[in-house]
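Notes from the pairing session

We agreed to fold both candidates in a single pass and log them together. This is the raw record for the first candidate, unedited. Please don't reformat it; downstream parsing expects exactly this layout.

Candidate A
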Amino acid sequence: MVESVLAFRSLLFRKKQYASLFFICLFGTAVSLFSIFLSTGMIASLSEKALIYYGGEFVIMSSEIDERVIPDVDSKVELLKTLLPEDAVITTRYDFGSGMNTCFYYEGEEVLQRVFKGVSFKEESFLFDKLNFLKGNYDIPKGSNKILISEPIAKKLGAGIGDEITLYMRNINGYINTLPVEINGIFQDSSVFGMFTTYIDKEFLLKAYGRTSDFANRICVEFPKRKKISDSFYKDLQSNLEKHLKMFPIVPDKNTFYFSGCSPDTYAIIPLKSNLNDIKIIKSAMTLVISIIILFLIIIIVAGIGSTYKVLVMKRINEIGIYMAIGMKKNAIMKSLLYETLFLLLSGCFSGFVLSLILCGIVRIIKFNFIPAFSIFLSKGYIQPAINLPIMFAILVIIISVTLITVCNSVKKCVNIMPCKAISSNE
């Protein structure tokens, strides 16, 4: 207790000497935490877009060659309802990969579309609430010809909300079909998950392509009130489904199932992370860059405080000698000096945390949608930094513990000096 009081008073008395160390800790911590919060928010936005695009936390698919149709899909949905918790939302989709055969026409402009997502907007409202709309909304009734398209496509067409454009497609029999569709919503997305994707009512798309109304090639499952689904959950579900259906093992990459060559009556659970294998490089690159930045900042904090503190302690060798002469134990002196460092680090880290929150607040009010293809990391045109508590505490613990160890080695050399030498020292 005495050592902590002595350390606190010493810090106040020598605040000018320790100011540089405080600011090293403050800015190093602030930039480290800000980088983590920024990258966490960007990856969360990316995952949110993937969630909308794929329809939920996981999908059930078949290996049927004909567009991976799920025969008697209603019975499969009823089976899932008996196996899944009550908070699970189960929907069916028709994912139509249009290739080069489908495009939009409007006033002489032509734009190809890569994917059409046949959905029930009412049933999937919990997902479309997350979509970043520039204009319009997803209030589209069943059977309607209204659609959602991305902002880049709307700009290429020169079309806006309420405009009727022409959908050109070849139906299941190979005949050309042209249909009028109305733009009901324009969403902000120029990424792999949205730019060339159209969301359309499932019944309308099935009719346009020539499929029956009960056709589906995706059973999508989402838990709107949950943040994460555990691996054990997937294992249990896989085990239960194997009692009723022929199931393919859960794999980290969906392409393993796609090209497995298994029989058409085989089904698979495709978790969201299995769909994201193509963009893992982006996430890995972000993690690597942020890790390198944080590593350099931690080295700067530890080296800066450790080396500077050693000089400051050496200048206080007379003071240490006086403490020893009046009977103060070496361990008590070491504790006092380490308490100084600890208080300095705690105040610097806390101030750095506050500064990082201020920086996050500033970033939240700056629109970044002017950067091409950056919208994959944005929510409603903005970066939404998110506090990552486990990593934050890990960084703070590393900064504090490693710095204390470094300072401890410097302090040991000073307190091991003889009292007479310490008092007579000219430092």
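Candidate B (folded immediately after A)
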Amino acid sequence: MDLDEIRPYRIETSQAELDDLNNRLALTRWPDEIPGSGWNYGAPLSFVKEMVEYWRTSFDWRKQEASLNEYPQYTTTIDGANLHFLHIKSPEPNALPLMLIHGWPGSPVEFLDLIGPLTDPTSYGGDAADAFHLVIPSIPGFGLSGPTTEAGWTSSRAARAFADLMHRLGYERYAVQGGDMGAMIGPELGRIAAPHVVGVHVNAATMGFVPFGQVEEAVFATLTDAEKTRIARLGNFMQERFGFNMIQSTRPQTLAYGLHDSPAGLLAWTCELFYGFGDYPEAVDRDRFLTNLMLYWLTGTANSSARMYYEGAHDPAAWAPKDPSPTPVGVAVFQQSDVAIRHFAEQTNHIVHWSEFDRGTHFAAIDASDLMIRDIRAFVRSVQ
């Protein structure tokens, strides 16, 4: 097999896989719960039960599978790993290539509402000058890329693989957008492929964009009220909501037995991020959430995706001081969940664009797609 080969791909789920899923959902062994505890101890029993019942009896995977298969999809092998990606070309011949990078526990499903407006802006009341050719990969070890089979898949290694992918596709000049883990991979891609990356746009940014540890009083005094609120939100997150990260950074294999065997367990483990740990339980459409979840369940990638946390936590290079990046960076801060603060982001990033919005959550490409589209366009115009 030619290792540089790009292979067309379609999602094809056997009925046996769906029957097995249905049986597992029906046979879920439910835990107890302290009455009235809400989301304080984690995903509440009533919420998870309702989602599981909807998944088992009402969710139409065949409809979602057919919808996903309408987009051109491919796989290729890079650095020994299978890499899945959507590649949607714009009808505008002068469109700029743009890579969209998801995070955990996300997938290309996050970006479905962006595809039409970004590739064909004139059909959505926009300007042809804002058109993009989109490349939307599944991070190695995540979803349709399938499990990775060796150690060492850090965000930096994923960035190198994505740089190779864009070169393989013939794109020598392109922009990047990423959220969550994509906001770690994207800026790294901007560093290692600086001559080719015109700019990196991020949301849900943490590593390299927030303080870790106590903020000096003199610095804190210079922050805006909104930034001080983000500092408090970050502190609360680290104290009350960081458990998933700590476990995946230290014992992902132990966790994997539950997530790989129990669809209800996988749902409960991942739903907190999508629903803001109960702060925004209606933020994400159930069908969109479950479509994303199916990509993890059907591919058995709960373990390999969690392993990237372990690799990052144990990678000395990830924690070493970084030189300032030469690549222009734009930051979108969605006030319902984001914690990026410009003072800290500017220490290692060449910030040229900063936007703050009064709505939008961790998955802003889903629940605030209009704002995301507008901000990507504005950023890329500023760095073209």
